[in-house]
Amino acid sequence: MTLPELQQHLTYFTTTTDALGLALYVLYNDKEGIEQIRLADIDHGSAVELKDQYLKYLKNKFLENDDLTFMNISEGDNRRNVAFRYDLDERPIGLDAMNLIAENEIQPQFSFTKDDFDKIKAFVITIGTEVRKLVLFKSHHHLSILRGASTFGIRVSNHRFVRVREDIIKLSPNIDFLQIDNTLVVLSLKTLEANFGFEAIIRNKATENILAIGAINLLEDISILSEMAEDIRQAKHIMRVKANSPVMLLPVATVIAFVQSHKPIMKKFRLSEDGSRLKLDTKVSKKLFLALMNDDFLTSELTKLYYAGIAKDPMLIEAEE
Question: Residue 303 CB: number of other CB atoms within 10 A?
């Protein structure tokens, strides 16, 4: 799903006159550590306010944010003002509830007597109709609970202040994940990396890419990349090597010739004794190799200057009339 396609979907939800419903689900782990899904009983007025809150957040994030970057999670970095399209085959651990609820909204109702209020770990919110639906995921933190017994909270009631003795859950407007039409959108990379087993997914994808690079027989010693992948920061860089990179399709001799003729990098690589393979024996050569595999070295036709670019938007050549 492209950003314009995502925006088109969200425009419907933020402008439609159709009756959009909201359902709030609670996720918690029971005593055996098994995740449980419970439907929260929420009054109509509160549901409408909550729906408006999240639609406003999505509108601000995706429809009124001209500087937003939307990119694949496999190519993602830590830049600000970004949302990620989850394009990896392996899905994060802990997000299965989004699919389960999308497929079957009928879930047991949350009970304050039977279910463990203290073990709540996340909320899943659905907004839409029977035909079109958004699924939102919001992690829950214990700092978002105001304990009535331990906190002296007060509210205004007519002309006086009244003590609030109930526990209160704060639901801020921001969310961590959005799912629409089977596309998972990551809004909080920090949350994904911290709580959903994403480090293991990064390492698995890095291993997959190392095998693909090894298959083209460009490196004298492919085990160097495996050693690099032991560092999660390096594993991220290896994960970002695009599976469809045109460099992977070139003859090895062509890649070697490019390296030897590209002035900024020609002295940064060494070759095997027979000159047929690249050697990665320095930190610089290791870093440059991953950029090389992603075809990140550019030369201006106008100025003949050299550049290293990550975001490369292809330019179409119009046919001559």
Answer: 8
159 CA to centre of own chain: 48
More confident residue, 5 or 156: 5
Q: Which residues lie closer than 8 Å to 74 by C-beta, 6 or more apart?
A: 87, 88, 205, 239, 240, 242
For the segment 117-139, what is each residue's pLDDT rounded down to a tens digit?
678 889 999 999 988 999 999 99
What single-letter amino acid sits at 16?
T
What are the beta bridge partners of residue 270? 279
**pTM summary value:** 0.82
> Quick one: tokens of 233?
């920061």
Contact 81, 70 (CB under 8 A): no
Strand 160-164 to 21-29 pairing: unpaired
Of 78, 85, 134, 79, the residue nearest 105 (C-alpha): 134
